[in-house]
């Protein structure tokens, strides 16, 4: 279910000017809110989005797509599972991540 928490932007997004990158992210947020009704199964009500635009750089977007400001890693949760007390990895067979 961790993958349900991530929106993918078109691969060429990073090549666009900053303003257009942000516009794409905002459009994706608005589209996702409309399609999901503001809820993600298992996770619940959507409270914010993070636009990760560079390594260690994140911008917080509201559920309406408006810029809230710079975001830190504080409060970012991630799904995990253990089996008999040991972490279980969800990496895809080809070595990529499962998101």
Summary, kept brief:
With 99 residues, the protein is of the alpha+beta class. It has 1 helix and 7 strands, in the order H-E-E-E-E-E-E-E. The strands form 3 sheets. The chain has a 3-stranded antiparallel sheet with strand order 3-4-5, covered by helices on one side. A two-stranded antiparallel sheet has the order 1-2.
Descriptive overview:
The radius of gyration is 15 Å and the shape is globular. With 99 residues, the chain is an alpha+beta fold. The protein has 1 helix and 7 strands; from the N terminus they run H-E-E-E-E-E-E-E. The protein has one helix spanning 18-36; strands at 39-40, 44-45, 49-54, 57-61, 67-70, 82-83, 86-87. The chain has a 3-stranded antiparallel beta sheet with strand order 3-4-5, with helices on one face. Strands 1-2 form a two-stranded antiparallel sheet. It starts with 17 loop residues before the first helix and ends in a 12-residue tail after the last strand. The longest helix has 19 residues, at 18-36.
List the helices and strands and how they pair.
Elements lengths: L17 H19 L2 E2 L3 E2 L3 E6 L2 E5 L5 E4 L11 E2 L2 E2 L12
Antiparallel strand pairs: 1-2, 3-4, 4-5, 6-7
In order across it, which strands form the biggest sheet? 3-4-5
Give me the strand/helix succession: HEEEEEEE
The major sheet is characterized as:
3 strands, antiparallel
Into which percentage range does the β-strand content fall? Answer: 15-25%
Q: Low-confidence segments, ≥5 residues, pLDDT <50?
A: 92-99
Give the integer mean of the pLDDT values.
Answer: 80
Helix content: 10-25%
**Roughly how many Å apart are the termini?**
9 Å
Number of strands: 7
Q: What is the tally of helical segments?
A: 1
Shape: globular
Structural class: alpha+beta
**Rg estimate, integer Å:** 15 Å
